[in-house]
Q: What sequence folds into this?
């Protein structure tokens, strides 16, 4: 017999379930309906917008993560194409992928491909992550050597698909910045948007990362290794699409909460720079991607595509409340400092 007393809400099981699913429990990951400011609308629904602002503000001041549904972000075709073209590239021969190695595509730029065991997003660990990555920087696209693009049709097709996805994602990103400003009760709801005016252009720092976590055998995994180590992101507003479970978010009690894919949603969070910018009012949640426990699941690959928001390179980030809790710092300088900690250092 079910012990109704074991539920925090007594006999009202339905209320308990809804509380968990809708994120009114401060340690759960909320599922928030974005219909009030969907990309299918030219302007927000004024009656529903205040509730949306409150929900997002609550999520970002507690857990730091939430699911967003009814975004109007892109048709299923655009999302599916970006994932499929990425997978086709990642499952091609290593020789073909290496034509796009970071540093070769655009000298001095992060644009391009990195292999497994080249990054560790948790700099406190000596073990590197079991993932491959392709960084797409739209402001760098015109610098890509045409001969490189011609050298790999699979790489070229992926870049085109990522560019289309980026164009859709930019509008969602900016609308989220508006809502965050409203939640913080800033005088100008476009305050953050204005700091990202070069998004996708020269001087911008925005990027997409398409990640591929290859299937592996248990014998190939180092003890304590993750697909992606524990970390918080670096910049402003971030959102991702994913195809398989593995993502976990650490709540305020230090417990890890699974954040599996939910059809029709993106997962949204903020980075360290936004937390710093808001004098810690908003939370940059720690997260990781774990390896499946079973041998069968371990051999299956996983994908995600992440839209990383970052203020323009030359913007100076100062605490918006005037508290000077953190000293001013340039957006580009902060980003560069963080990157130094994640890439594998070559032995001398």
A:
């Amino acid at each position: 017999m079910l012990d109704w007393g074991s539920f925090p809400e007594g006999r009202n099981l339905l209320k308990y379930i809804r509380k968990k699913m809708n994120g009114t429990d401060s340690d759960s990951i909320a599922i928030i309906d974005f219909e009030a400011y969907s990309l299918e609308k030219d302007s927000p629904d004024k009656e529903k917008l205040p509730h949306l602002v409150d929900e997002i503000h609550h999520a970002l001041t507690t857990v730091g993560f939430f699911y967003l549904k009814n975004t109007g972000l892109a048709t299923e075709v655009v999302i599916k194409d970006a994932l499929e073209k990425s997978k086709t590239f990642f499952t091609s021969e290593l020789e073909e992928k290496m034509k796009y190695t970071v540093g070769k595509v655009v000298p001095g730029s992060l644009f391009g491909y990195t292999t497994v065991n080249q990054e560790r997003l948790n700099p406190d660990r000596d073990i590197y992550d079991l993932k491959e990555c392709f960084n797409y920087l739209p402001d760098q696209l015109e610098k890509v050597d045409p001969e490189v693009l011609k050298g790999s049709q699979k790489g070229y097709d992926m870049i085109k698909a990522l560019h289309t996805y980026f164009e859709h994602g930019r509008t969602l990103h900016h609308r989220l910045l508006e809502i965050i400003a409203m939640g913080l009760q800033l005088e100008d709801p476009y305050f953050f948007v204005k700091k990202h005016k070069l998004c996708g252009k020269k001087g911008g720092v925005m990027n997409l990362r398409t990640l591929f976590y290859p299937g592996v055998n248990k014998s190939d995994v180092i003890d304590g290794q993750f697909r992606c180590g524990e970390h918080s992101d670096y910049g402003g507003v971030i959102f991702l699409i994913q195809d398989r479970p593995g993502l976990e978010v650490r709540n305020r009690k230090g417990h890890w909460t699974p954040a599996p894919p939910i059809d029709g949603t993106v997962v949204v969070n903020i980075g360290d720079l936004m937390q710093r910018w808001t004098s810690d009012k908003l939370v940059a949640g720690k997260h990781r991607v774990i390896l499946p426990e079973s041998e069968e699941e371990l051999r299956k690959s996983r994908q995600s595509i992440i839209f990383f928001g970052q203020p323009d390179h030359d913007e100076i980030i100062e605490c918006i409340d005037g508290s000077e809790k953190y000293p001013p710092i340039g957006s580009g300088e902060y980003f560069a400092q963080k990157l130094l900690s994640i890439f594998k250092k070559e032995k001398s």
